[in-house]
């Protein structure tokens, strides 16, 4: 067999290691000896290369692993990676969960070394006395770097930006490296290091605590050799050296250690276990430097003549693992890579005196691991040992080029057959998604299909996409760096690939769309293959790590990391469909029959079936189940293309007339997609970190696709079986309720489709905004985002439900199974996690993504609040008509009072807006007015303000406030869009005089400025005419430019004339006449008629207006400028004398009475009022301005003088003053 059939019990969840944003990476320049380390953050997070070599150097790690701290937990797991040819050591947290009180550690620290570091000389330690992380590294210049990092370095940028690493970075050049070459580094603790040398010896470094005070070396060195000093000195003599192995630029003696592990087994002493090149294991006493045990790693006696055949390759460093047990004991696992490879298990006991006992756990048994395939060449690259409750587990990682496989073996330490459980497999998450060909009947454009496939969340890194695009452009010969400026990667991709295809014409002269589609599809396929080739390199496995505390298994790759989780029951059936367990044998047969049946469909039939399903999922139907099934059968029409062979296969699997299919069988199927516990509804013991949430999202993506594939095939199979049998007594619905099964399948698929959309739709959210704050208890109050704040991409599932991910309080299950249970509960139809579409839409609206919220409308419920939120979605999309329709539809439901209202809106509604809901139609429509007003949709503000006013019930103070506000909004909106009649109506309805006066001024000014003079004059302004007149008078007095600007004088003149106030109209014309004369308009003679000027025309208007007044009332007052005509000082005495004389005559003739006396008394009253009004208007600082009494005759005389003046000017007849005459004589 090419592939060994292992039972699949585990699955991977592969994650990208691409930084979410540039601010997530902190670049630290590690200074060489004698200089100061500094940090900077200007380096980009991910630099795409123009070629494949640069891409590999900058993005793909050459060595990587995970270190777990023992003494502190925030962060606990640290992923380290070697990048850029060894010059960069990248560190980040890979914790899945954390305590509620701990904060996340999202930062990535990139340590830049001046010289490349040795990949196998990197170590980390966790001091017990203080919370810190020590990083040790030896570079190729044999300098030892010691870097102390605090947890804050992984949590806050400010912890590094201040140059703190200057004191935290120590560089030491060990004298022992002058004549010995380091090969491996092992960390005993934060104060003690072990370096294995090329000659088989070890160099122990002990921290010098007095280094800072005495200015001495930071480390104290001690050298220990395998065979003592005598043997070492003989090795320096030519022709007396032991056998060596060439590795790099040095010769390693066969006693040199290539793999190391350190433990203290709970005692006071530390022990170093080394696997050497001579195929032997040596146990060193770290304290004394003595070798306590030496033996073959397989515990066999071999012929000394065969030593060369048993020599281990020096590049192998993963040959020994230790699992600590009770105090003084540990389990040591060694691996021999010679031949087919073999494991050996050792039980080691130690005491405080420093002696140990090493024993073979299974002397009569050998464990030769099985490779994934018997035909291909597979190499066991790494292994890990995890201690479980039922015994230790051995995990192995096999590699074939860049492909890898992971296997697990549970050890039976108590029985006689320790390896009887057999190897179990892990389903690797590197399946290439299928590419569906495009056809002329596709509902989705070919480019959009490819973009969805390429930009699937977590599939490719940005560096991979940019590098592939640059390589593709270079292949076309069109590469230009400037062509990408200002474009997103998707836009640049469409631009480049679109330029390779042209729409030509057929031989008949028509457009050749088929050729265009075919050529476009070919170019996208080429680019897709290039992407897959680059991405394949990212998935090269580098190490396999087991979490000693949580039991989590990690596969660390070049540019990604994979978390291993346990399979659900349905996963196990699917991946082991050919050999299911007896318990699930019948349901596996049903699943296999459905998958095989749908697999025979052509692309067109598959599209028709999915289209029919979409109608079932999203369209409300009042039809019974039988009619719905018939409708699906007719729409899908798969019966037209299935062959007799396809039908026979179903019959062979399920029996004649499908007798195997029973209600119990479908119950077993639904039990497989039902969560076994309500873990997601419990209180969380530990909250998931950002990485933990991404693991869950990736697992949900894979689980949703698997469940969808199975349930969709079961739905199609159910329809086929229902209508395939002709005998009425043998049909399915005669044996059980087929409609109920159909309905349950549709409901399950509806939730899966909803969840799939959430898990595959990405958006950018603020990096500083906590996910917990968006949906937690404090979500009622909205928060503001800063415009320059950096964003990170997250899926809708992570952003909306990520705060619910964590370890439940009541269970202590391992992470491998806890993640699976959580994912299964999310995907189950009866999940404890309710997907509230309206809440998701609220959150998306808060994130300013109404386009994504719109895509959720098919999943929305029909309750009033859901309908209201749909209206908010259309409102955000500027579709005001549709939004108004939804708002009116939800009005009754959201206006009714309710006792308990859950105020959850992800911050979309504040407390003030919540108070307006469920408190009557008036308040509800007032709320709609507010949100339309924020959009400046004034016509809709008017509509809903009228509705609110319509439902206001007078009698309460709240109603008065609401009415006042609605009238104000109605007036403002009507004024904004020049609906002045509505604004006038709202103005008259206002009861607040101060507010009414302010809005009256606003209305008058708006109408005048917009040129609506005739409409202003036509409005009645009941009870407000005097105030309108006063406003216009003030505006006339404030006019500076009488020619340009708003013609307030003409407007006021028209206003007074329309209200039969001719003398008032004449008075304002006189004011304009005076300002025209001061502006020199009288000297601007027209071209056609010299006598036609602004001033003469104003005189005519003035005379005409005053002519409409009875002769006895034909007078006005003229303001006198004494600076221009001082002889007129006191010139207003004629008016006062005339009034006094008229009053005396009225007193004398009062007894006589008569018509003349009454007319003169009315004239006296008008003149007194007229004079008083002008005194009040023109007076300033309590003083009365000087005025001149003008009659109609005076105005006609002035008009004639003005004409004479113009004629004199035309005839060059100028009058001279005495000063002018003296100038002429001189």
TrEMBL record:
Residues 36-45 have a biased composition (Polar residues). Its main location: nucleus. Signal peptide: none annotated. InterPro entries: Beta-prop_Nup120_160 (IPR059141), HEAT_Nup120 (IPR056548), Nucleoporin_Nup160 (IPR021717), Nup120_helical (IPR048884), WD40_rpt (IPR001680). It comes from the Eukaryota. Residues 613-745 form the Nucleoporin Nup120 helical domain. Residues 33-53, 770-790 are annotated as: Disordered. SUPFAM superfamilies: Calcium-dependent phosphotriesterase. WD repeats lie at residues 268-294. GO terms for molecular function: structural constituent of nuclear pore. Residues 76-571 form the Nucleoporin Nup120/160 beta-propeller domain. It is found in: Nucleus. Keywords: Nucleus, Transport, WD repeat. Residues 840-1009 form the Nucleoporin nup120-like HEAT repeat domain. It holds the Pfam family NUP120_helical. One of its GO terms (cellular component) is nuclear pore. This is Nucleoporin Nup120/160-domain-containing protein. It comes from Echria macrotheca.
């Amino acid at each position: 067999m090419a592939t060994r059939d292992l039972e699949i019990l585990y699955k991977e969840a592969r994650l990208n290691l691409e930084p979410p944003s540039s601010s997530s990476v902190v670049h630290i320049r590690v200074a060489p000896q004698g200089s100061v380390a500094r940090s900077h953050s200007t380096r980009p997070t991910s630099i795409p290369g123009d070629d494949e070599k640069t891409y590999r150097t900058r993005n793909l790690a050459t060595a990587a692993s995970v270190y777990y701290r023992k003494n502190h937990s925030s962060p606990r797991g640290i992923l380290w990676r070697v990048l850029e040819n060894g010059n960069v050591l990248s560190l980040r947290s890979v914790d899945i969960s954390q305590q509620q009180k701990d904060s996340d550690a999202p930062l990535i620290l990139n340590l830049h070394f001046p010289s490349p570091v040795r990949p196998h000389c990197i170590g980390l330690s966790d001091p017990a006395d203080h919370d810190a992380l020590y990083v040790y590294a030896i570079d190729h210049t044999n300098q030892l770097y010691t870097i102390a990092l605090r947890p804050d370095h992984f949590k806050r940028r400010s912890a590094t930006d201040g140059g703190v690493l200057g004191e935290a970075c120590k560089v030491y050049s060990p004298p022992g490296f002058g004549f010995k070459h380091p090969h491996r580094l092992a960390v005993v603790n934060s104060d003690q290091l072990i370096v294995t040398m090329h000659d088989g010896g070890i160099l122990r470094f002990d921290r010098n605590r007095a280094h800072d005070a005495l200015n001495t070396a930071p480390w104290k060195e001690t050298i220990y050799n395998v065979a003592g000093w005598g043997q070492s000195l003989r090795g320096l003599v030519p022709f007396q050296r032991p056998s060596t192995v060439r590795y790099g630029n040095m010769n390693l003696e066969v006693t040199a250690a290539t793999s190391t592990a350190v433990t203290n087994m709970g005692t006071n002493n530390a022990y170093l276990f080394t696997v050497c090149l001579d195929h032997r294991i040596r146990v060193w006493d770290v304290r004394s430097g003595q070798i306590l045990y030496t033996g073959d790693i397989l515990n066999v006696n071999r012929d000394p003549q065969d030593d060369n055949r048993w020599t281990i390759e020096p590049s192998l460093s993963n040959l020994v693992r230790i699992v600590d047990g009770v105090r003084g004991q540990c389990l040591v696992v060694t691996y021999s890579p010679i031949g087919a490879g073999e494991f050996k298990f050792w039980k080691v006991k130690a005491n405080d005196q420093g002696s140990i006992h090493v024993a073979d756990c299974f002397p009569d048994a050998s464990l030769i691991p099985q490779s994934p395939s018997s035909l291909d060449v597979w190499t066991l690259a790494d292994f890990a040992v995890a201690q479980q409750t039922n015994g230790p587990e051995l995990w192995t990682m096999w590699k074939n080029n860049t492909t890898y496989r992971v296997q697990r073996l549970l050890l039976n330490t108590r029985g006689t057959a320790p390896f009887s459980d057999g190897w179990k497999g892990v389903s690797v998450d590197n399946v290439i998604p299928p590419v569906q060909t495009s056809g002329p009947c596709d509902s989705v454009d070919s480019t959009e299909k490819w973009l969805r496939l390429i930009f699937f969340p977590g599939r490719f890194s940005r560096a991979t996409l940019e590098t592939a695009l640059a390589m593709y452009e270079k292949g076309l010969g069109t590469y230009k760096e400037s062509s990408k400026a200002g474009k997103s990667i998707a836009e640049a991709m469409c631009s480049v690939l679109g330029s390779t295809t042209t729409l030509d014409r057929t031989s008949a002269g028509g457009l050749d769309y088929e050729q265009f589609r075919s050529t476009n599809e070919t170019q996208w396929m080429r680019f897709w293959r290039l992407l897959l080739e680059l991405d394949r390199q990212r998935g090269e496995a580098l190490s396999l790590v087991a979490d000693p505390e949580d039991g989590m298994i990690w596969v660390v790759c070049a540019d990604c990391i994979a978390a291993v989780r346990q399979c659900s029951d349905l996963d196990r059936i699917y991946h082991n469909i050919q050999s299911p367990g007896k318990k699930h044998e019948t349901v596996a047969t049903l699943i296999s029959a459905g998958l095989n049946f749908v697999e025979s469909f052509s692309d067109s039939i598959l599209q028709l079936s999915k289209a029919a399903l979409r109608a079932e999922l999203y369209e409300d139907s009042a039809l019974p189940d039988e009619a719905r099934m018939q409708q699906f059968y007719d729409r899908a029409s798969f019966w037209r293309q299935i062959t007799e062979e396809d039908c026979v296969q179903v019959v062979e699997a399920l029996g004649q007339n499908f007798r195997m299919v029973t209600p119990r069988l479908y119950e077993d199927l639904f039990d497989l997609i039902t969560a076994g516990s309500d873990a997601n509804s419990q209180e969380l013991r530990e909250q998931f970190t950002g990485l933990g949430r991404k693991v869950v999202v990736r697992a949900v993506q894979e689980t949703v696709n698997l469940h969808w594939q199975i349930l969709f095939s079961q739905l199609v199979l159910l329809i086929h079986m229902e209508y395939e049998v002709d005998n009425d007594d043998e049909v399915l619905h005669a044996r059980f309720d087929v409609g109920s099964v159909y309905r349950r399948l549709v409901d399950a698929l509806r939730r899966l489709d909803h969840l799939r959309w959430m898990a595959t739709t990405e958006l950018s959210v603020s990096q500083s905004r906590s996910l917990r704050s968006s949906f937690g208890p404090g979500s009622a109050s909205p928060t503001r985002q800063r415009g320059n704040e950096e964003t990170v991409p997250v899926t809708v599932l992570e952003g909306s439900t990520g705060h619910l991910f964590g370890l439940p309080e009541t269970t202590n299950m391992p992470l491998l199974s806890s993640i699976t249970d959580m994912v299964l509960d999310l995907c189950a139809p009866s999940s404890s996690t309710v997907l509230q579409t309206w809440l998701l839409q609220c959150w998306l609206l808060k994130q300013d993504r109404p386009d994504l919220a719109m895509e959720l409308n098919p999943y929305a419920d029909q309750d009033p609040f859901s309908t209201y939120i749909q209206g908010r979605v259309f409102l955000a999309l500027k579709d005001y008509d549709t939004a108004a329709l939804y708002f009116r539809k939800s009005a009754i439901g959201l206006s009714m009072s309710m006792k308990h209202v859950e105020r959850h809106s992800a911050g979309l509604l504040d407390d003030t807006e919540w108070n307006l809901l469920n408190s009557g139609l008036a308040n509800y429509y007032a709320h709609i007015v507010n949100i339309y007003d924020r959009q400046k949709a004034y016509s809709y503000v008017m509509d809903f303000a009228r509705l609110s006013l319509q439902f206001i019930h007078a009698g309460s103070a709240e109603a008065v406030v609401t009415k006042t506000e609605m009238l104000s909004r109605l007036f403002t909106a009507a004024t904004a869009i020049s609906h002045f009649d509505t604004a006038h109506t709202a103005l008259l309805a206002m009861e607040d005089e101060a507010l009414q006066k302010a809005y009256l001024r606003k209305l008058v000014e708006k109408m005048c400025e917009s040129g609506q003079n005739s409409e202003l004059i036509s409005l009645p302004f009941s009870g407000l005419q005097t105030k309108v007149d006063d406003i216009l008078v003030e505006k006339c007095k404030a006019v500076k430019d009488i020619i340009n600007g708003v013609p307030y004088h003409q407007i006021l003149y028209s206003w007074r004339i329309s209200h039969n106030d001719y003398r008032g109209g004449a008075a304002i014309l006189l004011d304009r006449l005076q300002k025209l004369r001061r502006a020199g308009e009288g000297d601007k003679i027209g071209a056609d008629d010299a006598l036609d000027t602004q001033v003469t025309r104003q005189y005519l208007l003035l005379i005409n207006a005053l002519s409409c007044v009875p002769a006895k009332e034909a007078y006005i007052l003229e303001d006198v400028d004494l600076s221009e005509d001082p002889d007129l000082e006191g010139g207003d005495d004629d008016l006062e004398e005339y009034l006094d004389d008229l009053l005396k005559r009225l007193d004398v003739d009062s007894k006589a009475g008569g018509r003349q006396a009454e007319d003169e008394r009315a004239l006296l009253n008008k003149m007194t009022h007229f004079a008083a009004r002008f005194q009040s208007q023109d007076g300033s600082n309590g003083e009365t301005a000087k005025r001149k009494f003008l009659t109609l005759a005076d105005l006609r005389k002035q008009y004639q003088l003005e004409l004479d003046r113009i004629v004199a000017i035309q005839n060059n007849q100028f009058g001279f003053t005495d000063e002018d005459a003296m100038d002429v004589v001189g």
